Amino acid sequence: MNWDDLRLLLDVSRHPRLADVAARTGLDATTISRRLRRLETDLGLELFERTPKGHLLTPAGQAVADKAEGLEHSAAEIASLSESEGPLATGRVRLGVTEGLGSLLLAPAMARFAVQAPHVGLDIIAVSGFVSVPKREADMSIMLTRPKAGRLKVRKLSDYVLHLYAHPDYLARTRAVTAVADLAEHDLIGYVDDLIYSSQLRYHEDIAPGLTPRFCSPSIVAQWQMAREGAGIAVLPHFIAGNDPQLVSVLPEAVSLQRSFWLAVHEDVHATSRVRAVGDFLDELFADSAARLTGAA
Question: Hey, what domains does the chain have and what are their CATH numbers?
Fold first, then answer.
């Protein structure tokens, strides 16, 4: 029995479609399928059910995966012994983060991180959605809700606020907005409803029942650009739009939404020097950016 085949079993258990595993591992789907069959032959067990949705674990496969996860955890603990005790943070960390935060707050701070941790590489996975720490898609992830399951170390990074924003030209050519009720007569900008990946992004429901955006995108950066070009009124984080000279705040006293950022780190790597270096950097960055995040003077 080959340990690499067991690790491949874990990859497939977390990502049932072989095409997804192939993209992650660099192996082609034929090789992955052959190695899984080899593992089944070595163990004398049927580990997967081949379905249109991908390779799904059989009860025997789940039992093997549970044991393999224990081995993976032990291997990570052994590897972290030298890293947690070593004087120098080295290696690479994969950080999952929301698109707006990654693009507008973290990416501009990379020069600062390079000085603080010169031997640590950082992959910022800034997407319209979340990468999964429990599934080992990332070592750590900044999330909009506190995760309640998985072998994770979780802490709150910061609150942040959102307001309504629009270009002055849009406001000049449309009906005046003097109250929340007026928003029903305006072109609103927001998320594609069935692509919303967190309930925390359903902003319009919190503002007033029945508000429906006319222009939608799963990308907060795209929504920001729509508002900057005068397409309508968008709900945007203060750290994105608060200092944008092309936008003005709409109903700032009446509409102010608060959300939070949570940092989730996999237990297997939370004590390593490289992950601690990224965590320390994030703590400092969020502390220094408090006013930008919350709009406080």
Answer: 3-84 (1.10.10.10), 88-159+260-294 (3.40.190.10), 161-257 (3.40.190.10)
Cite the DSSP H helix spans in the chain. Answer: 3-14, 18-25, 29-43, 59-85, 99-101, 110-116, 168-173, 203-207, 220-228, 238-241, 273-288, 290-294
Structure tokens at 166: 């629009």
Question: Is 285 exposed, middle or buried, given 0-12, 13-18 or 19+ CB atoms closer than 10 A?
Answer: middle
178 three-state secondary structure: coil
Across-strand partners of 250?
164
Is 64 strand, coil or helix? helix
- pLDDT in single tens digits along all 297 residues of the chain: 677 888 888 888 888 888 888 887 788 888 988 888 888 888 888 988 988 888 988 998 888 888 887 776 666 665 555 554 455 667 889 999 999 999 999 999 999 999 999 999 999 988 766 667 767 678 899 999 888 877 789 999 999 999 999 999 999 999 999 999 999 999 999 999 888 888 888 999 899 999 999 999 999 999 999 999 999 999 999 999 999 999 999 999 999 999 999 999 988 888 888 999 999 999 999 999 999 999 876
End-to-end CA distance of the chain: 62
- Written as one letter, the residue type at 183 is L
Backbone torsions φ then ψ of 234, nearest 5 degrees: -120, 150
The pairing of strands 188-190 and 215-216 is parallel
The one-letter amino acid code at 80 reads S
The helix/strand count (H/E) of the chain reads as 12, 11
Residue 287 buriedness (CB in 10 A; 0-12 / 13-18 / 19+): exposed
Residue 184, C-beta contacts closer than 8 angstroms, at least 6 positions apart: 208, 210, 211
